[in-house]
Amino acid sequence: MSSKAVFLDRDKTILLPDGGEKYIYRIGDFYIPEDYIEALKLLSKSGYLLFVVTNQSRVASGHLTETDVNELHNYLDVILEERGVYIEEYAYCPHNPRGTVPPYNIACLCRKPRTGMIDALAKKHGVDRPRSWMVGDSDIDMIAGKKAGLRTVQVLTGWDMYSHYADYIERDFAAAAERIAAEGVRTD
Ligand SMILES: [Zn+2]
């Protein structure tokens, strides 16, 4: 039996930068609004598996290590599980062809807007793509989602331009989750 899923961009989609931080590197650089926790629960309750798919190309530029990325995801997993939210799997792309740190400075297949992360997760978990969604703040998230055969929702908490590849545009992740839950009921 195939499952339906929501693929979530991480930074400026489900995690918001705290204070004056521009990038989210480590624990302490971000916060999750209370209504985003409820939004994640709503998606689970609506039958969606949840995946995080995030570009972390600052590994390739030496600002971050894979250990930092994994530590943040492990921490996130703990605080979300305490609140009753279960992320099925966290996928990240550490690459950037313009990076300086081997072996990460390559043109890979996983860096969004490429679809490698979504493809691998969809295959592994038997995801039915037409019933599934990508949520993110940036154009590259929307392009990746469309190329992967998903429906897309852009949230306006990061990037301030509308993506032509967004099926829906919502003010933030809480509104995006309500949109997905409603559309899922209507169309699935
Ligand atoms: Zn990659």
Structural write-up:
It is a single chain. The protein has one domain (4-187): Rossmann fold. It contains five helices and eight strands; from the N terminus they run βββαβαβαβαββα. With 188 residues, it is α/β, with parallel strands linked by helices. The strands form two sheets. It has a six-stranded parallel beta sheet with strand order 5-4-1-6-7-8, with helices on both faces. Strands 2-3 form a two-stranded antiparallel sheet. Helix 4 (139-147) links the parallel strand 6 (133-136) and strand 7 (151-155). The structure holds zinc ion. Zinc ion binds next to loops.
How many domain modules? 1
CATH-level-4 superfamily name: HAD superfamily/HAD-like
Spans where pLDDT lies below 50 across 5 or more residues: none
**Fraction of helical residues:** 25-40%
Tell me, what's the shape?
Answer: globular
Average pLDDT over all residues: 95
Tell me the number of strands: 8
Strand residue content? 15-25%
Terminal CA distance? 14 Å
Q: Which sequence of SSEs, written as H and E, runs from N to C?
A: EEEHEHEHEHEEH
Q: Number of helical runs? A: 5
CATH topology: Rossmann fold
Order of neighbouring strands in the sheet with most strands: 5-4-1-6-7-8
Radius of gyration: 16 Å
CATH level-two architecture: 3-Layer(aba) Sandwich
Small molecules held by this entry: zinc ion
Brief digest:
By secondary structure, the protein is α/β, with parallel strands linked by helices. It has helices spanning 34-45, 66-82, 116-125, 139-147, 173-187; strands spanning 4-8, 16-17, 30-31, 48-55, 89-93, 133-136, 151-155, 168-170. It has a single domain (4-187), classed as Rossmann fold.
